[in-house]
Every structure is written in structure tokens, then in C-alpha cells.
């Protein structure tokens, strides 16, 4: 199998696809040469006595055929063949064959494998016919072959140069696209970090602002607002430092125990009782899993503070199974709190990115968020 692939790659290396179109500079050069050649033929017709008008027409047609290479290589090559066949009627086959030798460069520059091989075979046959066609006139076939070889080598060199330039342009375009995607990924990451941290603290602030009107809870609410604002500023500074790629003064810990403790404090400050089960400091929990679970707890806490109705909030951690947060569904509409509506999607993305399972939905009158992650 490997041998077959090697043979296939070797064969592909000798297969020429359809060449690129001529560049603007090449087009200008070809047109200038065509114009000069036709002008020289016309001037020679009027200044040289005894020139056959039919020979002039064949010469002009041969030169004009080169213009077709600016449009279609196959049609131009066929037109050149027709002119060569016509040249035998007026005795200018040697001149047309010289033009065909020059055209070998354009065929090599623009043609594909089958056309190049066909043109080479036809040119050799034409050279042999011209050499044996007129016994009285000596024709140096080798000169035609040298012209064709040099022209073909120049055309092939130009083909390789332009192909390399096109390849470099594609590589630069791909690299620019990769850099653009990297910038977009970094922006999405920064947006996600802001959502996971700042949005949580702002939710706490918005919740306790609604509770300031109650004299019994206003003091605790003021303290909760101060703590949430301070944490929001710390997290914001951390994200800004990461975005600036500067020295980091804070390290993102992803401490599961600290996340659960913080969530419990916020639930209790909001009037919920909390039922905790499981040890978040269990040494069997891998570090990567702990970071993901801490984010799940943080985001779930944000949603619970926004939408949960009165009642008990359950935080159950089973190291061998899952972590689950259960909160009561709201019984009465709560004053609207802003939402980016991306929390569940980001939680699912984090869990599944760590080869885990995630679910969130209503179960027996409660809202349950469940995450299962491998611990081995």
C-alpha cells in the first residue's frame, strides 16, 4: 500500500495541470512583440519588391495566432497548426516553423501535460517534414530544435516561478487567516472569562440591590455588594492582564472547595438553605476536573441567584459519579435580571471538552444541573 502511494506521488510529480493565465507584464510583452513583428512584415512588404502577398498574409496570420495564447492555449495551438499547414502553399513553412519553435515557450508556460506532449510530437514531425520537403534548400533542423528547447526551458522556468509565487501567496493568505482565527479565538476566550466571572458578581450585586429595601437584610446586602464588587474588580484586572500578555499578579486557581463555599455563602445571603454532600477536597479529583467543576459551580450559582424560587438548594458531589446542583423553580416572576443566555452552552462546552457528560433541565419540580467527568 505504501509502495502504491509512493508510485502515485511520483506520477503526480510529472503531471502538469492547466497552467495559470499570463500575468499583466507577460501579456504586454507578447502584444508588443506581436505588434512589432506585424509592423515589420507590413513595412517589408512595401519596401521589398517581389514579395508574395499570400506569403505576407500567412506571416501575419502566424504572428496573430500568438495573440490567441492570451485567451485560450488549445485554440491558439490549433490555429498555429492550421497556419503551418497553409504555409506549404506559399513556401513559408520554415518561417512558420521558427514561429512554432518560439511558441513552444508559451505552450510550456500555459499548457497541460497532454497538450505539451502532443505539441512536442507535432513539432518534431513538422520539423522532419520541412527538412525532407525541399531537396534543393538546405534546412538546419537542429536549429529549430535548439530554438524550441530554449523557448520551452524559458516557458517552464516562468511557469515554476509564477507557480511558486502563487503558492507563497496562498500560504500567506492561509497564515493571515490562521492569525485572524487566533485573534477571534482569543476574543471569544476573553468574552467567556468575563461571562464566567464578572457576570456572576454582577448578578450578586443586582440581586442584593433588590434586597436593600428590607431593613432586616440591608446590612448583609450592602456587605455582599461590596464583596462582589471587589471580586469583580479582581477578576476584571486578571482578564485584562491576560489580554495584554503582561505580568500576572493573580493566578486562576479553579479551587472547587472555594467555589462551593462561595456559592453556599451567596445562596444563604439570598435566603436559600443549602444542602451540601460530598468532599470537594477529595484527592482523587484530578486538577483539570477540579477546574471544570469549579466553573460549573460558579455558572450554576449565577443562574440560581437569578432564577431560583424560594427553598433549598442542593449541592451534591459524588467523586465516583457526578456533581449535581438542584434548585427550586421560581413560583412567582422575579424582577428581570440581565442575561447573556450563554451560560448553559459554555458549561456544556467545558464538560464535553473534558470528555464528560452534561445535562441541565427540569426534574420533578426543580432545576437540576449535572456534570459527569472522568476522575482517572
TrEMBL record:
It comes from the Bacteria. The lineage of its organism: Bacteria, Bacillati, Actinomycetota, Actinomycetes, Micrococcales. The keyword Membrane applies. Residues 186-240 form the Signal transduction histidine kinase subgroup 3 dimerisation and phosphoacceptor domain. It holds the Pfam family HisKA_3. Its EC number is 2.7.13.3. It comes from Microbacterium algeriense. This is histidine kinase. Keywords: ATP-binding, Kinase, Membrane, Nucleotide-binding, Phosphoprotein, Transferase, Transmembrane, Transmembrane helix, Two-component regulatory system. It catalyses: ATP + protein L-histidine = ADP + protein N-phospho-L-histidine. InterPro entries: HATPase_C_sf, Sensor_HK_TwoCompSys, Sig_transdc_His_kin_sub3_dim/P. It is an enzyme of class 2 (transferase). The chain crosses the membrane at residues 28-46, 66-90, 110-131, 143-162.
